[in-house]
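The instructor's notes for this session suggest beginning with a concrete chain rather than abstract definitions. Hand out the sequence below and ask the class to guess, before any prediction is shown, which regions might be ordered.
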Amino acid sequence: MSAYTIFFVFLFSKHNVLTGKVYDANTKEPLHMVNIFIIETDFGTTTDEDGYYTLIIPDSLKRVQIRYSMMGYKEELREIFFKKKDFLCVNVSMRMEPLKAQGIVVSAKKRKFKSTAFITPPFLSDEEFISLPSLIEGDLLRTIEVLPGVTKASDFLGSFSVRGGSPEQNLILIDNIPILSPFHLFGIVSAFNATAIKSAELYSSGIPVRYDASLSSVLAIKTKGVDREIEGFTGIASLSLLSGGLTLGDRISSINSNFLVSFRRTYADKVLALFNYELPYYFYDVYFHWETDIKDWTLVFSGYRGADFLDLREKDEESIKIVGFDWKNNVLALNLFHSGAEGDLLHIFTGYSNYDFSLRVLDNTYLIDGNVDVWSLGGEYTRNLKDHEITFGVSNLYWPFEYNARAYLGLKYSYEGIWSDQASIYIEDKIKIAETLLLLGGLSLTQYYSKEKGLNTENLEFLRAYRLSLKYFLKELEAITFSYGNFHQYIVAVNSPEMPIYYWVPLGGRYDPEEAHHFNLGWESWIREDLYFSLEGYYRNFNRIFTMKPIKEIDLGNEEDYYQSMFEKGDGKSFGLDLFLKREIGSNRGWISYSFLRSYVNLEGETYLWDWDRTHNFHLTFLTLLRNKYELGIQFAFCTGTPYTTSIARYRCRKDLIPYREVEFYWREIESKRNQVRYPSYTRLDLSLSRSFYIRNNELNIKLNIFNLLNSKNVFLYYYDYKKEPPIKKAFYMLPFIPSIEFIYKF
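After discussion, reveal the predicted structure:
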């Protein structure tokens, strides 16, 4: 209502007029659709798009109580006194209420529980992986490790294993586009900036049929846009001991759009340079997210770039590079959504992903570089027909690869023009057979073609993938589930024999795609309004997997022989039980996860425990609000040690005898069978304490993180000190007690 209209209403009316503006206390942005009511009457109104409201109040009411309410915000009450024919202006600021926001999330999760035919995938919000204790700063992939079925090899690796599979068997998607090796700091931290990520969902059972490109799991990550309720410019500035970042966003109402840009960079190299000390390493990452609504269409254009650089030079001669190592990830994603009048949904997507690395040692003595591109295109249409929800989809993944390696002493290996193409068509039908039974069936057909230009090898495969899931409801929010599926993987990550670096190659020639079968049986329930529980047993049969052979067993005669002899074929199995108990709402919330896991692999006729086997995995995660608005976070982990191969005996050998010199000896070791023993159990307690302060209606959050509070000595590996006689076995430990502080300023 305009100012002129209000004036004339007041001028010619015998009533009182109350007007004003309602806005967010933190962002100062106007709030649209705030409900405004006079308590114990039927008089009320709502705010317009600019946050303004006008309420006509009968002259008979001299004293009124006004309630301002909006979902996700704390209610505000105002007591107003009127004289005869008053015109009053009352502006109101409202603060977001976390408990209400949590309640909205819980309602959404319960709806998903009812509509999902398998165990509901664990879901992490941006609030959770920012608020929980962390290593220096909030990290998505380090939060993933506390979910059921997830294990990690060590503190030094951000990569994770799901239900016994290897890390490269996890498909990681960012806005529906695959991303490879998304890590910074040599794998210690993830490439995902917590302030730019909206949510992450982990599929470890009941994986939808559209995802048939990995053997173990799918981690679907969504980037963040600006909340639709917020108008105007917003931002987040963050600073930790590791990096500094800035996230900026705005809504453009005139074209019904919003955008968000986020940048993060390590700064230690710049700070140390002020003291004439050079740190030869830094990383950065950049995100952007653009969202536009056009009638029934929503367009989301997003992207990511992350890069790490190590440039270690000779002190006396800076032109000589001792080690130069850099790796980069680039992702572009375009998603288009259309909602129809009948509840149907059309989703079209396309995108590009790139992983590039380069390693130089001793200037040009050793050189390794590689490049992997992923071109994605697909579409999916979902239609509701009475008790059926039918989905049709097509997708195509095109992967060109390049790899080069050479050493000064003559080793040379390279391949270019190697590529693969994965074209799929699929159908999925979710059927509500009865009020108590939900069934999901799916089938995909994939044509996989790989070709190695110059190596004269190619491979053409036609593969089928099946999905079957059943959910039987014992009560409205309690159900028994069963799911089955077979899965394929078309590219594998291998360790370079020349240098300790991972790279990716497509399976082709004499190597068929990897294959696995999953069987899952579970029970899940909302025990009460805010408490979710799930229990699931599983068995996985890895029919065909490939690992890289030892270098001595690979034919290095030429590129074709190298490619055709680099893998050994095997199979494996894993089985276990996952338990998950989570409280979603309240000042005390968190979860408990426990996993029992056994994982075996068979290669060359020898069966042994897989490297990712951990018999018991227990995690406790807890967040609580203390007095004076402090929030305390606790994470505790207890895990069985991973298996390893040890030395069971050693003997001394004499070096070649040189006349007139003292005889020299060295030790040789006899190893046990592979992975016959285990490292000691792993324990770790992390702590965080945070508090928010309001500065001119902007929020400053200060968070203290303590990683490994008890300084637990978790063994990473054992080695022998051969300077002692006899040699002494020593332990190299994982990360110790690490305190840090983090600042997040929202404006």
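Then share the key points. Helices lie at 3-12, 98-115, 126-131, 140-144, 268-273, 559-565. Residues 1-13 have pLDDT under 50 and may be disordered.
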